[in-house]
Amino acid sequence: MAFRTNASSAQPMTRSNTAARIDRNKPIEFTFDGRSYTGFAGDTLASALLANDVHLVGRSFKYHRPRGILSAGSEEPNALIRLGKGAYAEPNLRATQIEIFDGLYAESQNRTPSLKFDIGAINSVLGRFFPAGFYYKTFMWPAAMWMSYEHVIRHAAGLGKAAEDHNDPDRYEKTHAHCDILVAGGGAAGLMAAMQAAQSGARVILADEQNEFGGWLLGEANISIGGVPALVWVSAMLTDLAALPNVTLLPRTTVFGYMDHNYLTLNERVTDHLPTRPAHLPRQRLWKVRAKQVIIAQGAHERPLVFAGNDLPGVMLAGAVRTYINRYGVCPGRRAIVVCNNDDAYRTALDLYNAGADVVITDLRNDAKGPLITAARNAGIEILRGHAIIAAYGNQRVARVEIAPVDDSVTAISGDILHRDCDLISMSGGLSPAVHLHSQARGKLQWDGAKLCFRPSATHEPSFNIGACNASFDLATALKEAIRAGTKAAAATNHQTIALTAPDVVSANQNWKPLAAWKIPNGHGAGRGPKAFVDFQNDVTASDVSLAAREGYQSVEHLKRYTTTGMGTDQGKTSNINALAILADALGNEIPEVGTTTFRMPYTPSSIGAIAGRDIGDLFDPVRLTRMDAWHRANGAKFEHVGQWMRAWYYPKGDETIHEAVNREVKAARTTAGLLDASTLGKIDIRGRDAAEFLNRLYTNAWSKLGVGKCRYGLMLKDDGMVMDDGVTTRLGENHFHMTTTTGGAAGVLDWMEEWLQTEWPDLEVYLTSVTEQWAVATLSGPNAGKILQDAGIDFDLSPAEFPFMSMKEGHIGGLPARIFRISFTGELSYEINVAARHGLALWTHLMTAGKPHGITPYGTEAMHVLRAEKGFIIVGQETDGSVTPHDLGMDWIVSKAKSDFIGKRALARETMAYDNRKQLVGLLCSEPSTVIPEGAHAVLDPDQPMPMEMLGQVTSSYFSPNCGRSIAMAMLKGGHARKGQTVFFPMLDGTVLKAEIVDPVFFDPKGERIDG
Amino acid sequence: MLIITCPFCGPRDEAEFACGGEAHIARPLAENKISDAHFADYLFMRDNPKGLFLERWRHSAGCRRWFNVARDTVSHEIIEIYPMGSLPKKASPKAAYKASWRRDTAAEKAAVRSPNKAGGSK
């Protein structure tokens, strides 16, 4: 092959002289794998590397084969890069989408120790032993070895490496937006449709994943629209669109998800392309868009041809080569072979030729004709008709090819093999419309037998497909389609517009019907000869697909999972159609019968950071603080999360351990006085004519006769008879109640009550208001509680006769208006003092001051748990788990026999509820009084029985009780009520066995003599 | 992500709502002597059709009101939204209501309906 002289001199060898969209006056320095390179503003990392004649940019996933740059867009399967350093590092970015900036730092992936010498490449030599389903077949036996295999496999698996520092230092934002019409894709069709729709005054969002609008036009030469070069037309359209107040233009924004009811997610890369990211801007912004109509103009992906050695660096898609030449001024090779089954690649051949490269066209077709073919012939480009590249060879870059004549169906070699040297193969297997968004939104596809592609048929959501993604590859057709869709979409949103006149397109006519040639023969038998790749990212070859079909993986979804074709970061954008065509061939089926795999979001990978947005760290979930929180913090409290609440857990003094602090607090609450911040208890204000009747139906016990000012404990069941919540409710007036719920159950109980009122008993007149946040609550408990209240300045008589247990009085304490409830969760004399939230801290500090001479001790939730366990009081959600009835808890006394109905009543009468072996609440005393049985420990009757042992039940609460001077525990055990006095065993993980006696679950003051102090 | 038109607040994002499962399950009154099996029909058995489904939704992050929705579980099309205690009016939801296996079961009959909640609601 003769070489022509390269006309350019000032540029690096690979830079062409074409008018490109790079700024040659703005050189940009960047680093790839430790070496410095120079590119120009406007370059992608891929184009800048190609300009520096770097083709080898990565190693493949399975065989560690050298890989180059295949495409020029988001479909790139090979050129995956780790960008940035330290906490900013991000793996698996496509070099074809990374805009370069000064100081950009990039590394190749999947190679050890270096890209050029990679020890993993041994897999390539052993490739015959890694067929489809290799892992499934190899690591099947012995089963016990799986854990060891898994370790090795996990280590070898995975693309790229996440940042070493997992704290992403970047900021991300979210935007919620509504629009009349969202146009996804800003190529020729998208721009035209957006312009048409915008004329009507409809609110339009136009998003495109590239840094510039224009789509494929950015990479084309010799096309004019409306009498001017295509990119001049693009520029004019953008100027006009930007001037319209109803249009939002979003470049660098990928529409990556399309969900029900026209809900779409967009990822805008706001500052990724900047050398330093301005502090006032987020790195990326997630747009959540609700569109009335969607116009999809996603374009199409070019398919590779499947021939041996098609994965070598230097083997590129024809459209991509054209883009590098025209858009980036980079000619990726000097000696190019164009291999194709269609006319479009002739454009690339001509552009290569004009860029100064030697070109040979290998056309699989025998009968190609048309203006592009004529133009190539007239330029003197050698055209081999009815020929195919049957193998490409090279070491880290393609160096030579074998070309052979093939029969009409491209299934057999029909003549002598020619050998050619080359440094670039530009291949084109036809176009596949990007039907991803359409399919995500559950639109249907149909096979176009002429254009050899799946194209959208019926849409599911209100949407339109236009242009190349609708298989309308011809530009003039696409523009007309865009005008129609823009007009219709606007009309559907009640915006009228007059159809624009489609601009004239001047471009060489071409035939858009490629020749079906899914697998190029290589002269060897099935599964023999050099590898021909279908899926580059997952190293799936044509013979892998055929083998999977022979082994019975006939469904395309099974094929995907067995061979991994179509998986990974590119999700098979370039490979899927080839894979299923080869599968169809192997099965003797038609392609439409094989069908496609399911398209799911995201269209391209989106960073998790953008999806999380600002909802991280402190903003991940709201934190609720009580009004006494400042005091707790100032006094050294340790906290625990209870739902969203932060509750004081215990208050260590000096060097106290949790154990010492809790013991002291628990002891004080029974000897002097303890003070608990109980503000987090759920509180619901209930009013209305039928309030008492409603409570009758809600709780298991009776409420009608409860006197005003009296309190009552209630147990709430689900309609299946299982305990769902408990709490004390107080009658404030004839038709007015104050309900308390568990801290964690508050929201759920309010939901529950509203549901019954609205859906089952709308005839009841009851009004519910959550007042949890409106009241601050301090619970004063212990023998000195009364004295402290006196000293704190209570303005009513506290004597048990005047203010008995389970009653409520309104009064003042230290001048603060308060509701004081004489209820007790400790078994001691106890007052729950409710004040308006704004008085919470004042109340607390006042009580602490007044209580000082009386030994007042603040106690936290841990001491609260111990205190209630000493009395055998349950905690819903700790003793209960949604499968526990009142009877199981030994609380039959609270279930009314007289009431005709309450929620759960009928279910309690079910036969299974009476079974003796239901798990029932019991107390446990460990044989070692100092040993606390771990909560969750499982009880067995015989610790020597063979595994698996028969479990009797589990420990639900377990503490050291300083007041009992020993450990205590509560447990739910099968048939527990009848087992009192028996011994159960708890085999521990360390092989020891604990022993405990089953007792009544009230450990302290069983007769309740302390309640009045 | 559906758009649900709350009868009280207007069209809102699905994120504001909570789905309350199948609609029109009438609660048998406790004194009714129906068998455990029939009671279980009410308590546990829920339909899960592919296609039109009558279900309850609550505008939990809005007005907190309950209402009924006739939704196609395949296409996610919302065919009708109608108040608690009423029956659908459009033809296909009406047919779905009539075709429900639950109609005229013992559990259904055991539910004494109050006058202002035709068809049951829970």
Question: What report would you give on this structure?
Answer:
The complex is a heterodimer of chains A (1013) and B (122). With 1013 residues, chain A is of the alpha+beta class. Among the domains of chain A are: 172-300 and 433-492, FAD/NAD(P)-binding domain (3-Layer(bba) Sandwich); 512-594, Arc Repressor Mutant, subunit A; 629-672, no CATH class; 673-898, Probable tRNA modification gtpase trme, domain 1 (Gyrase A, domain 2, 2-Layer Sandwich); 915-1013, Aminomethyltransferase beta-barrel domains (Elongation Factor Tu (Ef-tu), domain 3, Beta Barrel), CATH 2.40.30. The termini of chain A are far apart. Chain B is of the alpha+beta class and 122 residues long. Chain B has a single domain, classed as 2-Layer Sandwich (Folate-binding fold). Helix content of chain B is 17%, strand content 27%. Chain B has 3 helices and 6 strands, in the order E-E-E-H-E-E-E-H-H. Chain B has helices at 36-43, 91-99, 106-109; strands spanning 3-6, 10-13, 18-22, 52-58, 66-72, 78-83. In chain B, the strands form 2 sheets. A 4-stranded antiparallel β-sheet of chain B has the order 3-4-5-6, covered by helices on one side. Chain B has a two-stranded antiparallel sheet with strand order 1-2. In chain B, a hairpin with a 7-residue loop joins strand 4 and strand 5 (66-72). The two termini of chain B are 25 Å apart. Mean pLDDT of chain B is 88; it is low at 114-122. At the A-B interface, helix 20 and helix 24 of A face helix 1 of B.
